[in-house]
């Protein structure tokens, strides 16, 4: 029979901190250092530079911490879903009693299963053109109604409603609740989007109806699909193929505000616009009312100033016309004065011209003998040069050098031997007379 008072059977009573420390020592002696392969999940980087995440596989997971010095040595940006190998030391985080792996090094070991599935679906939908920029539409600058698809219990809904109430309280907001996490979430999101699409299409069909109908049925021309941040598993509903194909069927521009700024989902690529956070999505779709009221005030001031300037110009034209109509004598006086000025200018111009002519005549009288004398000398010199040229061209000067000019009986010059046939009568013109010749025997050179 067990005796609870026996010293040999009494277990040791541990302090909590001592037990954690002992377990840590046992892990240190039994396992460390250790290398572990697994898929990253819940990765976060604190402001201090330390990184915290879970490393998991199909059968388990372990919490990890990587301090700033080790994180700075990692040659890539770790993301949820990546398959990695880490080197480190197992220990116990005594403040919480949690098993923890302090990571001293990390390297890629391939893509995790979820991330590989994400990449395959992304490549498939991109090849089908669901991500094309040409398909995406610009936002409506002044939406008449906004549809919001998210969970009723999500903090993202509170953020979006708060931002819309602060910026555009006059715009109606229609909320379509949907699950945003879990196995049933994709189908729930598809159903919520379909309901919003029906409202949007119904609002478009009422464009030409009475204002009463429009008041009863809000016109939705912008849709927000939002969810707060989380791990890759938490956001997996937004990487569903059916959700993606439903998003691209939206009849109005759709903004995706899923996760934090560093989170990307298939829904982001399919939407007309991606917002980094749910609050940013609400701010993108709705400019503050004060901005539009300020723009209206500015336009009113510009219109008022333009109208005032137009009235002032017309008033001035009216005053000028009235002044001309009421005092025609002033216009006549101005015309007489203008005519007098023109007559004075004409007289002055005539006197100036006469003075110029008189000066020219006087100058001609003084310079005329000199001009005539210079002109005669120029003509005499020109005649002397012409006479010299004529003398140089006189053929008698050539004959005086021993040459003769031969002519036939008709007086034509003989310049070639074939023109002088035997027995032909020729005349040789010399410098002091002429000689009659008879050709006996012509010879060629």
| Largest sheet: number of strands, sense, barrel closure | 5 strands, mixed, barrel
Calculate the mean pLDDT score and round it. 83
Q: Can you write the helix and strand succession as a string?
A: HEEEHEEHEHEHHEHEHEHHHHEEE
> Quick one: overall form?
elongated
Give the strand tally: 13
Q: Which structural class matches the secondary elements? A: alpha/beta
Number of helices: 12
**Spans of at least 5 consecutive residues with low confidence:** 1-6, 208-215
Rg estimate, integer Å: 57 Å
In spatial order, strands of the major sheet run 1-2-3-5-4
What share of the residues does DSSP label as strand, in percent?
15-25%
Quote the distance from N terminus to C terminus. 171 Å
Helical amount among residues, as a percent range?
Answer: 40-55%
Relevant terms:
445 residues; alpha/beta; 5-stranded parallel beta sheet; disordered N terminus
Descriptive report:
The protein is of the alpha/beta class and 445 residues long. The protein is built from 12 helices and 13 strands. The chain has a 5-stranded mixed beta barrel. Strands 7-6-8-9-10 form a 5-stranded parallel sheet. Strands 11-12-13 form a 3-stranded antiparallel sheet, with no helix packed on it. Strand 12 and strand 13 form a beta hairpin. Helix 5 runs parallel beside helix 7.
Secondary structure topology:
Layout: H1 16-30, E1 34-45, E2 51-57, E3 60-66, H2 68-71, E4 82-93, E5 98-111, H3 113-127, E6 146-150, H4 155-167, E7 173-177, H5 185-205, H6 211-216, E8 222-227, H7 241-247, E9 254-258, H8 266-270, E10 273-274, H9 278-285, H10 289-326, H11 328-392, H12 395-399, E11 405-407, E12 425-429, E13 434-438
Parallel strand pairs: 3-5, 6-7, 6-8, 8-9, 9-10
Antiparallel strand pairs: 1-2, 1-4, 2-3, 4-5, 11-12, 12-13
